[in-house]
Amino acid sequence: MLKKKVLIIENDQDIRNIVEFILEEQGFETMSTPEPEDLSEITTFKPDVILLDEFINSRPGHRLCLKIKRIESLRHIPVIILSTANNIELIATECEANDYISKPFDIEHMLGKVVKLIDHQPLAY
């Protein structure tokens, strides 16, 4: 059986490294970046879930989330927004993210959300 894939788009290298390590320990295949160069990284890696920091280098993460959700071939990929913002729930709703996690976060909580979204994905034909 193929490993489930998680793309981690996180500005903070320490958080990126920790999340990547934990997910790989749990059997996920990961790819991490502070910011994707373009959407081809997403289409090439074909993640089952994207963990997306709201504060990436050159643009707000919610704009990237909206872009993903507007592209037919990508919109099925669940996106979890990560943020320290007080209004993270509103941000996630407005950008059509599937879920959100407030920073700082508990690793078990993050894992539970990732697994839940992967388990509830429709089958791709």
UniProtKB/TrEMBL annotation:
**UniProt cross-references to Pfam families, sorted A to Z:** Response_reg
Q: Note whether Phosphoprotein occurs among the keywords.
A: yes
User: What sections of the protein cross the membrane?
Assistant: none
Q: Which residues form the Response regulatory domain?
A: 5-118
Q: Cite the InterPro entries for this sequence.
A: Bact_response_regulator, CheY-like_superfamily, Sig_transdc_resp-reg_receiver
Superkingdom of origin:
Bacteria
Q: Which UniProt keywords apply?
A: Phosphoprotein
Sites of the modification 4-aspartylphosphate? D53
Q: Which PANTHER family match?
A: RESPONSE REGULATORY DOMAIN-CONTAINING PROTEIN, STRESS RESPONSE REGULATOR PROTEIN 1
Q: What is this protein called?
A: Response regulator
Traced from the root, the source organism's taxonomic lineage reads:
Bacteria, Pseudomonadati, Bacteroidota, Sphingobacteriia, Sphingobacteriales
